[in-house]
Design a protein that fits this description.
Length: 480
């Protein structure tokens, strides 16, 4: 009787270290790995070309790592997820498959995809065995005293702290090299993959994607450097966009080149893996990791947020403005508000934007321009290398006062004040809005405020900040 193989389905988890599904599959018997690429599905989800290109490069690195473990990798292009069961049916006719192992994904479409695969496998007396790998705690395991999901971050965080005091989640061991598997080579031809990769490279500039190196070792090096050199000053430095004060790990966490458990273990390395907070920087980064955790849990517990609906149902009544011209100027970094334009141009140029600036740009669109936050959420997803549905949606709804922990509707960031506070010398603005580079550090935040006749090639502000703030407050006054 021929050997039946465990099939490991890699998704947003392109690594071999600390990988729940991979480790469990290798304990169960000889393994084959699989990655399914779905270009049409990516388009429906507004995934950025730079994010997909990054994913495809990491896929090549994963293939090499799996070769060292003697685990063959099958890469299949299936444009839409609904066709995956049919592919698995054909695959099972060529390879004896025992079960499929994968790490759970939490959005509505991903859960629906896995349910259809599970149904097909059950008909064959097989299982799709899923593991919680993207979060520190399994979804639905963090509950309040009424056994309901948390809707406020502070209470969620407190429960997470209590859980962490019982012990930090441990990393899985690296899998052992298995005996070679003899399979039909035609299954593993990847000519289409090169063409697919070329298509995405053509959509982004070389400078953009070469800034983001792939590989687990590179991600772990970035993590170590951050912990050793930047963590101490993180609480303050993280808010200044001209300073390299953030971890820059979001893109690596997002496609699973590094795990959330590895981040937590590194954070408490000096405490030998014990949950002992000994610095403000340590606590601040832990809280940022837990914000990420919170939004993942919200995505699962409140599926409306992945269906283009606000978390707070009452805010469906807000009447957003339809202003395609203003939206276009915001998208291209031509609003006449320097800190906004710097952030939007940074994202277009690099595929990444500083988190403080993301908040400023998001609140400006949803409050000052009173344009539907979903248009901004989509634009960010289409351009960010670290675009993650849970975090992006959570952040946008927070800024737009429609989500969990949402800022009160009457709190509207003044982008000029934010700019003066967090880019006091105008260094960040000078880098991304070079037409303002010659202005002094006072004028650069608001060029025309005291110099109406200033002769520079830069637009006047597209909106009056004070008037637009009042307009937003009126629009958000919903009947109780």
């Amino acid at each position: 009787m021929s050997t039946a193989y465990q099939l490991i389905w890699f998704r947003q988890d392109l690594r071999i270290h600390d990988h729940a599904a991979l480790w469990h599959a290798t304990q169960a018997g000889p393994c084959i790995a699989m990655v399914i690429l779905s270009p049409e599905q990516w388009q429906l989800h507004h995934d950025a070309p730079i994010k997909i290109e990054f994913y495809l490069r990491q896929l090549q690195a994963l293939k090499q790592q799996l070769e060292h473990l003697q685990i063959p990798l099958l890469v299949q292009i299936i444009p839409l997820w609904k066709d995956i069961p049919d592919f698995l049916k054909q695959l099972a006719q060529r390879i004896p498959i025992h079960n499929i192992y994968a790490n759970i994904e939490l959005a509505v479409n991903e859960l629906k995809r896995d349910q259809s695969v599970q149904k097909f496998l059950n008909q064959q007396q097989k299982e799709l065995i899923l593991f919680h790998d993207r979060t520190l705690f399994p979804v639905a395991s963090i509950r309040n005293q009424s056994n309901q999901p948390y809707q406020v971050f502070g209470a969620f965080k407190k429960t997470c702290y209590q859980r962490l005091q019982h012990g930090l989640p441990q990393c899985y061991p690296a899998p052992q090299t298995q005996h070679p598997i003899a399979l039909d080579d035609s299954l593993f031809q990847q000519s289409d993959l090169q063409q697919l990769h070329s298509n995405y490279i053509q959509q982004i500039s070389t400078t953009r994607y070469t800034e983001w190196q792939v590989g687990e070792q590179h991600a772990l090096m970035l993590l170590d450097q951050f912990i050793d050199k930047q963590l101490a000053g993180y609480k303050t430095a993280r808010d200044f966009p001209a300073v390299a004060g953030t971890s820059q790990l979001s893109a690596y966490l997002n496609i699973g080149i590094i795990s959330i458990r590895q981040c937590l273990q590194a954070l408490f390395r000096q405490q030998h893996g014990h949950f002992e907070i000994q610095s403000e920087g340590q606590q601040t980064w832990l809280d940022e990791l837990l914000w990420r955790e919170f939004y993942q849990h919200v995505l699962f517990d409140f599926p409306q947020v992945s269906k283009h609906l606000p978390f707070q149902a009452a805010t469906k009544k807000i009447r957003w403005r339809d202003d395609p011209i203003a939206l276009k100027k915001w998208q291209q970094g031509l609003t006449g508000i320097p800190i906004i334009d710097a952030g939007m141009r940074q994202m277009l140029a690099t595929g990444w934007m500083h988190n403080r600036v993301r908040m400023i740009c998001a609140m400006f669109l949803s409050k000052n321009l009173l344009i539907d936050w979903r248009k901004g959420e989509q634009w960010f997803m289409q351009h960010l290398i670290d675009g993650d549905l849970a975090a992006n949606n959570g952040g946008w709804q927070w800024c737009a006062s429609t989500g969990t922990d949402a800022v009160p509707y009457f709190r509207v960031f003044n982008p000029i004040t934010q700019s003066q506070k967090f880019d006091p010398e105008g260094e960040y603005i000078r880098q991304w809005v070079p037409e303002l580079a010659q202005l002094d550090h006072k004028t650069i935040h608001e060029p025309y405020a005291k110099h109406q006749g200033l002769s520079i090639n830069y637009p006047q502000p597209i909106v009056d900040l004070k008037m637009s703030r009042l307009r937003a407050i009126e629009a958000f006054k919903l009947p109780s």
